[in-house]
UniProtKB/TrEMBL annotation:
Organism (species): Dielma fastidiosa
Pfam families: Mur_ligase_C, Mur_ligase_M
Domain Mur ligase C-terminal as annotated: residue spans: 318-441
HAMAP family: MurE
Name of the protein this chain belongs to: UDP-N-acetylmuramyl-tripeptide synthetase
Pathway connected to this protein: Cell wall biogenesis; peptidoglycan biosynthesis
């Protein structure tokens, strides 16, 4: 229904007699067209006010928090934007089942598992996350794990237009902190874990943890939180919110995991009377699957079909991905936090009959405190650790490796060039060994200085060995 400017502005406490029919609403000047409303927001690196002239030249109408000629003024532009979006676009969150997945590790895996499960149950769905936006077989790259509000809005509207009702989205702490969630309201919010990461941004773990907890404020009225009962750091949520929480875990939980068996070729476990078999590896993935099963149960789907559906779930690329070649077993995993790396290597030690050879780097211009921890973990839990580059950005990779090496054993080799490091790992490994290539997962690039050089660990290995996976 056509909406006049004066009707919309009345909703945010501005009275005017402008009867222009508004054609769209945005906080991004690049989207503005004739007769669009532009709400100017202050960001981390840009100020929306810097684009006022551009917006006005395109025929847009500006709302800002500072006095500006020919602009409307509000005290809280972010709140105003949410009100306007919900009115103009008819509360898009209400027309969708939106599942947020947050935590330090496991977001991409859980979203991928849920998406595969919904698809098996015949429900088309959208995934928004680190691997981009996946919608009806198309994948659109995004800059962020949790994109800005306008990108999410356009995705939601497109999903509604196509008759898709389910959205899974990864929720980063940055997005919560910067108010990027805006108008989004979740039906379910899954917390996988909170461990050290992003201290470059949050400075303290407590700030990081409580920022993650703030996502609860974006739940719909009857929304539910699902959390891993075995993670102590998540238990404080039980004090912040007392209703609508569903727990899963080995400890007494609403969705109780038991009889877990972890093998190098897959895992099995029980939940209640149901027995699950999966080709996915490690306890992490048992927890991730339990989160998905808890979610389906919370939506009223309890059936035995869940067992069959779970048995067909595949690992997303680069997340505990097993690459079996004639003479080598390689695990490619996105572990890039101390917790994820420790769990990965402990599991490898549990199931490997040979030696563990680990190739690892740490990202530049990101949480520096992770480096010595990850270096020590890799050295302690591997037969040989090979330290190498990983998205060094503006930093010197040799300096990053030096920081990784402060407390390591004498089983560490350094080969800055990632391809040489992987080639070395292959050259020293035997059939019974597991080579673990950690940190980059399925990334398709290596960031050196400002440049994104096309590169992928798996593609490089297949090219080097001239083999097809078995
Ligand atoms: C420091 C930081 O987090 N920055 C993010 C933030 O940028 P910002 O606040 O500076 O916003 P901005 O894009 O500069 O613009 C401010 C305002 O001006 C408007 N604008 C901007 C440009 C323009 O031409 N016209 C215009 O109107 C914008 O629409 C906005 O309303 O909001 C933008 C989207 O809304 C993000 O793309 C951007 O992410 C940058 C690129 C980034 O690297 N962020 C990282 C730290 C991040 O967010 N990472 C997490 C995941 C981390 C993980 O789990 O590994 C993520 O969710 O990706
Ligand atoms: N439930 C879990 N608990 C702890 N570690 C996990 C869990 N699930 C996955 N991991 C580890 O974390 C790594 C990253 O997994 P995934 O990409 O699913 O997480 P993410 O939260 O999406 O990370 P990012 O936001 O950085 O992309 C995996 O490769 C694995 O090593």
């Amino acid at each position: 229904m056509a909406k006049e400017c004066r009707q919309l502005l009345a909703l945010i406490g501005i009275s005017c007699d402008d009867s222009t029919i508004i054609q769209g609403i945005t906080c991004d000047s690049r989207e503005v067209k004739q007769d669009w409303l532009f709400v100017s927001l202050q960001g981390m690196s840009h100020n929306g006010d810097d684009f006022i002239d551009e917006v006005r030249e395109k025929g847009g109408i500006v709302i800002t928090s500072h006095p500006h000629p020919d602009c409307y003024e509000v005290s809280d532009p972010q709140a105003a934007l949410v009100t306007l979006i919900n009115d103009y676009y008819d509360s898009p969150s209400d027309k969708l089942t939106i599942i947020g997945v947050t935590g330090t590790n496991g977001k991409t895996s859980v979203c991928s598992f849920l998406s595969q499960m919904f698809t098996e149950f015949g429900q088309r769905n959208v995934v928004i996350g680190t691997n981009g936006i996946q919608l009806d077989g198309y994948c659109y790259a995004t800059q962020n794990t949790t994109p800005g509000m306008m990108v999410c809005l356009r995705v939601f509207l497109e999903a509604i237009r196509r008759g898709i009702h389910t959205v899974m989205m990864e929720v980063s702490s940055h997005a919560i902190d910067e108010g990027r969630l805006g108008f989004i309201r979740f039906d379910r919010l899954i917390y996988t874990n909170i461990t050290q990461d992003h201290l470059d941004y949050h400075l303290t773990f407590t700030h990081y943890q409580y920022t993650k907890f703030k996502a609860r404020l974006y739940l719909k009225e009857n929304g539910r939180i699902l959390l891993n009962q075995d993670r102590d750091e998540l238990m404080e949520m039980l004090h912040l919110r007392t209703k609508g929480i569903i727990t899963y875990g080995l400890k007494p939980s609403h969705v109780q995991i038991s009889n877990v068996e972890l093998r190098s070729s897959g895992s099995s476990f029980d939940i209640g009377q149901l027995h699950f078999e999966t080709c996915l590896l490690s306890m992490n993935n048992v927890y991730n699957l339990a989160a998905c099963i808890a979610l389906f149960k919370s939506l009223g789907i309890h059936s035995h079909e869940l067992c069959e559906v779970v048995s067909r779930i595949e690992a997303p690329a680069g997340r505990m991905e097993v690459l079996k070649l004639k003479n080598h077993t390689i695990w490619i995993d996105y572990a890039h936090t101390p917790d994820a790396l420790r769990r990965l290597l402990e599991f490898a030690n549990q199931v490997c009959i040979g030696r563990i050879i680990t190739v690892l780097g740490c990202g530049g211009e990101r949480d520096q405190d992770k480096r010595h921890q990850m270096g020590t973990i890799a050295s302690t839990l591997s037969y040989r650790a090979i330290f190498t580059e990983d998205n060094s950005r503006g930093e010197d990779p040799a300096e990053i490796i030096k920081q990784m090496s402060v407390n390591v054993l004498d089983n560490v080799s350094v080969l800055i060039d990632r391809q040489k490091a992987i080639a070395f790992a292959l050259s020293i490994s035997m059939k019974s060994d597991i080579i673990i290539i950690a940190g980059k997962g399925n990334e398709q690039f290596l960031i050196v200085k400002e440049v994104k050089i096309p590169y992928n660990d798996k593609a490089f290995i297949l090219k080097l060995t001239e083999e097809e996976p078995l």
